[in-house]
Each structure stands twice: as structure tokens, then as C-alpha cells.
Amino acid sequence: MRTVNSAGVADTFVVSAKPGYLEYAMCANTGTAELWFCLVDKATAPVNLDIPLAVVAVPAGTNNTIECGKLGLRCNNGIALCVSTIADAINLPGTTPGFFTAEYA
Questions:
Q1: Pick from 40, 77, 85, 101: CA 20 to 30 A from residue 64's CA?
Q2: Please, which pLDDT band fits residue 64 given cuts at 50, 70 and 90?
């Protein structure tokens, strides 16, 4: 298992550019509006209209997690995280309100 952190606040974060298993990810919302924390199966940064594998709400000023258990959630292309203003597709907020931590294998 490896642990990685975003270097600072961002709206996207590539955990791994290779296939792997996400075990746990956390997003801290430093913004003033509720956002959606999204897991995307891709080797590059998520872009608008990408479809997430998993989504959780993150109220303003709080954090939330995506927990996938010890076996993890398989991502065939890569593991990428982002925050979105909507839940069913990626819509990047255009600011940098998220801080990310992830554990993967």
C-alpha cells in the first residue's frame, strides 16, 4: 500500500497513472460551497463531463472519504480524484478548494 497527498489545494489529483486498487481516499473541502468528491478511472487529470466511479458529498469546510476496503476498488486505467459542482458527471469548480490524501496498491 502507498499513501500520497496532493501538494496543496487543487480541484484534481492523479493518484496513479497506472492501473491499481484504491483502498481509501479523503478530500478536504476548503471552499465555501458543498462539492462532490469523485473517483475517476483514468491516468490523467479528470476533465469536465468525465463519469466518476464513486461520488460522495463534501459540505463546505469539512472532509469526507471514499473507503473501498482492504481489497480496494479496481481502476483499470489509473486512479484520479477531483471535486465537482455536480454529482453525476465531472464539473470542475474552476477554483482550488480540495486537498486530497489517498492509499492505493
A1: 77
A2: very high
3-class SS shares of the chain: helix, strand, coil, % to 5: 0, 50, 50
Question: Hey, what domains does the chain have and what are their CATH numbers?
Answer: 2-104 (2.60.290)
**pLDDT (tens digit per residue) in 7-24:** 777 889 999 999 999 999
